[in-house]
C-alpha cells in the first residue's frame, strides 16, 4: 500500500530538510542507467549505506514509525539488521533509491522510505545460541540489566523521554490510602491551621468556600486555574503567618516558557519554589514541588497527566543532587491527586474534588507551603555550614568530616539505583581527593563497599580503592524506600497500573527455538517479561522491556502457553515480589579520583588507559571477582601528576560477583550497560570474563564514533537506536558489525570521527582477537587479556597515533 505523508509529518520534513546528507551516495551512482544492472551484493551494500545515511538525518528521529512505537530511525536500523541476515526484500527499496538518484523532493524521498519499510520482511529467527549451554532458569538468575539511566549519548526528544519513563515506571500505584497522613502528618500545626483557615473561608461575609471555592473557573482552563491558585496560596500563606512564623514557598507557573535544563527543554505547568527566590529566572534546581494541570477530568490517566507529572519529577531528581524523593500533584479539572516518586517508582493518593473536600485541599496546599527540607525529600545527612557542604562518617573509631568539593555525576532517572558521585576530601587533609558515591540498591544484593574492601585488601591493581562504606541512616533508621520514605504504606490496597509496553516488529515475531542437540535455547519476549522480579533498575530489564509489548492481555495469553519445562520456579515468577520491591540507600567512599576515559588528553593516553583498565580487570578476576559492567563511565583516567590515584582504573563494582558464588544475588535479569553488552549476554548466556573483555571492545568502538577529541561529544549518531529495541535486535546488529573485515574497515573509516581515524587499524586488530573467525567467541581464552593489552600498547607506540 502506498504511504502518503500526513500533515504533521510534512511539517517535520519541511523544518528538517535532508540538505546534502545523501549527496555522497547520489554521486556513487555515477552514470548508472538502471538499478537492475547492479548485482545483489552491491545493491545490498548500497541500501545499507542509504539507510545509515537516512538515520543521520534529523527528520528520521522526529518522524513516527508506522510499524511500532518509536521513530523512523529505529525502523531503518532494524531494516539494516534484517538486510545483513538476508531477510529483507531489496526490491522494495528500488523506488527509494531512484528517488535519491534523481534528487527528488524530500517529501517524495520520505514517502518512499515509508513504502519500503511498511510491511517489510518475514519473521526473523533469533541467532542460534551455542556455548555455553545454559538453562532458562540459570539465565534468569543473572543479576540486573539495563535501565533508562544507562541510556548512552541519547538526545532527549519528548518521544524518547516518554519511552524512558515507560521503562522506569514499569508499574505505578494510584489510589494509595493514607498518603496524606504519611507525608503531611509530621508537619507542625498543619491540621489546626488548615481547619482554622477553612472555617474562616466558610463564615466570611462573602464566603470563600460555599459548596465549592469562590472564583474557581468552571471550565478549568489552564491560565485561569493558575491565576486562581496564585491568589489562593497567597491568601493561605498570609493567614498561616499568624499561626507559624516561617519562610514559606510560593507558586510558580511556566506553561509557556521552558525551564532551563542541560539535557532537555521542558515547560512546567505549575509548582512551588522557595519564597526567597525570584521567579523571573529559575531552573529545575529551584522547583521544590512540581504540578501538572489538565482542564479535562478525564486526563487523570497514565498516558496523560500521570506521565506529565512523572516527567517533572525526573527533572527535579536530576537537578537536585540530595533529593531522596519528590512530592508533586496533579489537578485534572477540579480533581486532585498527591504524588510521591522515589527510587522504586511512583505512588498517588486517591483523587478528590477540591470543591467538595475543601479542607483536604487546604491541608494539602498548606503542607506544600510549610514542609521542611527533610519532609519534602532532601537528604539531611548532607549538611551545609558556612556555604560548604559536608557529610560526617565514623571511621576507625573516630568521626571524620568530609568536605564536598563538587558534584561529579547524577543519574537522570526516577526508579533506579540513581547513582550520585561527589568529589570530596577529608577536612584535615585537602591534598588527597576522595569520591563519595550514593546509590539505592536492592537489599538482597552484595554490598559494593564490601567487595571493594576485599579487593583493596587483596591489593588488586587499577581498581578504585576502598576508604569507607555505610548504609545511610535517617531518623534513626536505615534509609530505605518502603520503611523509611513510604513509612510502611500498604500498596496492596491500591490500583496497580502498568505503563504500556508495545512490542517491536522483531520481538513480536521472535519465537523459542531448540536446535536438535538442545544447545540453542532462546526465550520469546513474552517469556522474558513476566518472571523477573524486582522492577527495573539501572541495569535490570527483562529481555524485551525496552521495546514494550503490544498489549497486556495478549502477553498474558502467550504466557499461559509456556511449556512446564521452561517455567521458572514460583519464587522467580511471583509478581508480588516485583510490586513490593525495596531499595536501600548505600554510601561508598573511594580513595581514587579520575575522569571518564573519553576525557584522555591524547590518543596515546587513551590507549594506555584502556590497557591499564584491562590489566585491572584481570587483577580483579584473579582475586575472585568478576566486574560485569564494563561501560564508558566505568573506565577512568587520571592525568593529574599531583593526584596519587591510579593512572587508569575501573570503578563501579555494584554488579560484581564473587566467582565462587553459588546461585544468584536475588535481583534477576541480565548484567551490564546495554549498548556495551557482549553479544552472548544479549542472547542470555551466563556472564564470563570473556564477555567483559568484549565490552571493552564495544566501549572503544563507541568512543571512536561519538567523540571527536578529549571529552568532545558529537551528539547523537546512527548508533543511538542501540539504546532501544530488543536484545535479539541488538545482538543481530552487533554480530553484523563485526562479521566481515572489509565491511568493518570501510564503515569504521566512514564512521570514526576525524580525531579517532588513526585508531581504525587498532580497533580492527582488537576485533580479530575478540571475535575469532569474525564471530562471537565460542571457547574461553585466558590469553585474550594479554592479546588485547599487547595490541593497545603497540598502537600507543605507533608514530601515526598522535601524542597530543
Automatic annotation (TrEMBL):
It is an enzyme of class 2 (transferase). Pfam families: Pkinase_fungal (PF17667). Residues 546-574 have a biased composition (Polar residues). It catalyses: L-seryl-[protein] + ATP = O-phospho-L-seryl-[protein] + ADP + H(+); L-threonyl-[protein] + ATP = O-phospho-L-threonyl-[protein] + ADP + H(+). GO terms for molecular function: protein serine/threonine kinase activity. Gene3D superfamilies: Transferase(Phosphotransferase) domain 1. Its EC number is 2.7.11.1. InterPro entries: Kinase-like_dom_sf, Pkinase_fungal, Tyr_kinase_AS. Residues 515-526 have a biased composition (Low complexity). Residues 268-704 form the Fungal-type protein kinase domain. Residues 510-581 are annotated as: Disordered. PANTHER family: FUNK1 11, FUNK1 6. This is non-specific serine/threonine protein kinase.
Amino acid at each position: 500500500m502506498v504511504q502518503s505523508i500526513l500533515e504533521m509529518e510534512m511539517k517535520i520534513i519541511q523544518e528538517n530538510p535532508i540538505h546534502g546528507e545523501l549527496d555522497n551516495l547520489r554521486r556513487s551512482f555515477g552514470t548508472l542507467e538502471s538499478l537492475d544492472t547492479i548485482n545483489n551484493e552491491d545493491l545490498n551494500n548500497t541500501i545499507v549505506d542509504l539507510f545509515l545515511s537516512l538515520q543521520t538525518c534529523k527528520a528520521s528521529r522526529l518522524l513516527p514509525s508506522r510499524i511500532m512505537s518509536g521513530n523512523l530511525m529505529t525502523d531503518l536500523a532494524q531494516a539494516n539488521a534484517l538486510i545483513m541476515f538476508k531477510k529483507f526484500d531489496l526490491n522494495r527499496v528500488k523506488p527509494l533509491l531512484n528517488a535519491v538518484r534523481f534528487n527528488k523532493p524530500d517529501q517524495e524521498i520520505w514517502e518512499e522510505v515509508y513504502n519500503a519499510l511498511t510491511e517489510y520482511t518475514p519473521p526473523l529467527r533469533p541467532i542460534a545460541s551455542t556455548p555455553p549451554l545454559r538453562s532458562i532458569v540459570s539465565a534468569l538468575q543473572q543479576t540486573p540489566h539495563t535501565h533508562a539511566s544507562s541510556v548512552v549519548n541519547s538526545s532527549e526528544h519528548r518521544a524518547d523521554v516518554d519511552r524512558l519513563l515507560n521503562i522506569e515506571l514499569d508499574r505505578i500505584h494510584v489510589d494509595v490510602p493514607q498518603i496524606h497522613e504519611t507525608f503531611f502528618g509530621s508537619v507542625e500545626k498543619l491540621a489546626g491551621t488548615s481547619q482554622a483557615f477553612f472555617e474562616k473561608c466558610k463564615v466570611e461575609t462573602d464566603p470563600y468556600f460555599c459548596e465549592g471555592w469562590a472564583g474557581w473557573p468552571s471550565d478549568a482552563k489552564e491560565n485561569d486555574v493558575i491565576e486562581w491558585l496564585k491568589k489562593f496560596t497567597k491568601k493561605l500563606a498570609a493567614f498561616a503567618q499568624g499561626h507559624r512564623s516561617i519562610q514559606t514557598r510560593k507558586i510558580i507557573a511556566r506553561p509557556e516558557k521552558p525551564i532551563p535544563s542541560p539535557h532537555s527543554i521542558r515547560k512546567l505547568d505549575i509548582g512551588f519554589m522557595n519564597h526567597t527566590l525570584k521567579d523571573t529566572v529559575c531552573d529545575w534546581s529551584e522547583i521544590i514541588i512540581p504540578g501538572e494541570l489538565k482542564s479535562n477530568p478525564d486526563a487523570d490517566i497514565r498516558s496523560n497527566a500521570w506521565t506529565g507529572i512523572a516527567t517533572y519529577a525526573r527533572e527535579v531528581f536530576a537537578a537536585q543532587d540530595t533529593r531522596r524523593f519528590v512530592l508533586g500533584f496533579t489537578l485534572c479539572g477540579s480533581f486532585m491527586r498527591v504524588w510521591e516518586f522515589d527510587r522504586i517508582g511512583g505512588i498517588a493518593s486517591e483523587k478528590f474534588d477540591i470543591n467538595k473536600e475543601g479542607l483536604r485541599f487546604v491541608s494539602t496546599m498548606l503542607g506544600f507551603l510549610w514542609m521542611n527540607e527533610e519532609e519534602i525529600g532532601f537528604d539531611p545527612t548532607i549538611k551545609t555550614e558556612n556555604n560548604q557542604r559536608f557529610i560526617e562518617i565514623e571511621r576507625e573509631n573516630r568521626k571524620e568530616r568530609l568536605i564536598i568539593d563538587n558534584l561529579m555525576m547524577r543519574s537522570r532517572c526516577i526508579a533506579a539505583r540513581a547513582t550520585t558521585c561527589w568529589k570530596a576530601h577529608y577536612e584535615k587533609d585537602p591534598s588527597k581527593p576522595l569520591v563519595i558515591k550514593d546509590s539505592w540498591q536492592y537489599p538482597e544484593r552484595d554490598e559494593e563497599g564490601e567487595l571493594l574492601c576485599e579487593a583493596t585488601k587483596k591489593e588488586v591493581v587499577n581498581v578504585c580503592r576502598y576508604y569507607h562504606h555505610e548504609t545511610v541512616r535517617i531518623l534513626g533508621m536505615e534509609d530505605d524506600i518502603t520503611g523509611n520514605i513510604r513509612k510502611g504504606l500498604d500498596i496492596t490496597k491500591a490500583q496497580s497500573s502498568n505503563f504500556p509496553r508495545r512490542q517491536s516488529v522483531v520481538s513480536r515475531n521472535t519465537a523459542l527455538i531448540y536446535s536438535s542437540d538442545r544447545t540453542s535455547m532462546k526465550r520469546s519476549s513474552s517469556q522474558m517479561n513476566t518472571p523477573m522480579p524486582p522492577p527495573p533498575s539501572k541495569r535490570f530489564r527483562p529481555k524485551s522491556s525496552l521495546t514494550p509489548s503490544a498489549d497486556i492481555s495478549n502477553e498474558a495469553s502467550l504466557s499461559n502457553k509456556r511449556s512446564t519445562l521452561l517455567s521458572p520456579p514460583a519464587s522467580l515468577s511471583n509478581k508480588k515480589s516485583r510490586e513490593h520491591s525495596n531499595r536501600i540507600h548505600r554510601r561508598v567512599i573511594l580513595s581514587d579520583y579520575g575522569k571518564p576515559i573519553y576525557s584522555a588528553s591524547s590518543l596515546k593516553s587513551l590507549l594506555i588507559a584502556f590497557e591499564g583498565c584491562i590489566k585491572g580487570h584481570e587483577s580483579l578476576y584473579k582475586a575472585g571477582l568478576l566486574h560485569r559492567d564494563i561501560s564508558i563511565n566505568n573506565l577512568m583516567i587520571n592525568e593529574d601528576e599531583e593526584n596519587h590515584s591510579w593512572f587508569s582504573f575501573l570503578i563501579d563494582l555494584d554488579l560484581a560477583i564473587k566467582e565462587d558464588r553459588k546461585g544468584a544475588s536475588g535481583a534477576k535479569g541480565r548484567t551490564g550497560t546495554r549498548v556495551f553488552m557482549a553479544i552472548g549476554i544479549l542472547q542470555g548466556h551466563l556472564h564470563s570474563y570473556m564477555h567483559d573483555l568484549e565490552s571493552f571492545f564495544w566501549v572503544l568502538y563507541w568512543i571512536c564514533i561519538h567523540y571527536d577529541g578529549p571529552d568532545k561529544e558529537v551528539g547523537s549518531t546512527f548508533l543511538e537506536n542501540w539504546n532501544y529495541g530488543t536484545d535479539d535486535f541488538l545482538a543481530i546488529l552487533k554480530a553484523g558489525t563485526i562479521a566481515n573485515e572489509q565491511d568493518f574497515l570501510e564503515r569504521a573509516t566512514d564512521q570514526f570521527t576525524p580525531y579517532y581515524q588513526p585508531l581504525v587499524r587498532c580497533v580492527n586488530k582488537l576485533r580479530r582477537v575478540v571475535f575469532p573467525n569474525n564471530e562471537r567467541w565460542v571457547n574461553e581464552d585466558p590469553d585474550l587479556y594479554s592479546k588485547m593489552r599487547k595490541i593497545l600498547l603497540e598502537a600507543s607506540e605507533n608514530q601515526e597515533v598522535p601524542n597530543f
